[in-house]
Amino acid sequence: MSSSESSAAGQGSRPGRPATPLPVLILLVGLAGACGALIRLLIGELIPEQGMKFPWTTLAINLSGSGMLGLLIGAAMSRPRTPDWVVPTFGTGMLASYTTFSAVILAVMPSIPGSAYDGLAAVTYVSPGAMEMLTYLLISILGCTAAAAAGLTISRALFGQLGAESADLGVRSEGRHDS
């Protein structure tokens, strides 16, 4: 395999470790994405938002997924032996399909009066007000950011701080960047 093929196949691979071939990585991400979408669908069916004035299910899914993504990234960064396929498979594949910003926007759209989404409000929610939806957007943005940060913090506490062993990042334990 040429150097251009190996860099394309193993973007983000760890030094000294064989890169996962791109076709395998695409298959893993696709399968994990299907699993994430199915998990989201299952939760949506178990806790339907029809009749709710506030999209609690979507908020809970996005908060939990953001926290899990923070845990995943923190653990992968703290463990240099993590295979190069783990973050794309579970982060980009499973958790990206589990948590979607489009679901947040879809939840907000019924609150816009006189829009093409008026019919959606009757089907999905009990007349959400604009203030409720602005609050929902704010909670989603700040809450998901906080959940991801909490996940990173927890994984660093469990798996150790970033140090010299995380050579991928070019940061030493003292905080200086490698040249």
Summarize the structure.
The protein is an all-alpha fold. It contains seven helices and no strands. It is globular, with a radius of gyration of 20 Å.
Kindly list the characteristics that best describe this protein.
179 residues, mainly alpha, 0% strand, disordered N terminus
Describe the structure.
This protein has 179 residues and is an all-alpha fold. It has helices spanning 3-9, 22-46, 56-78, 86-98, 101-108, 118-124, 130-159. It is globular.
Please summarize the sheet with the most strands: none
Specify the oligomeric state. Answer: single chain
Distance between the termini: 28 Å
Low-confidence stretches: 1-11, 163-179
- The count of strands amounts to 0
Helix content, binned percent: 55-70%
Shape: globular
Number of helices: 7
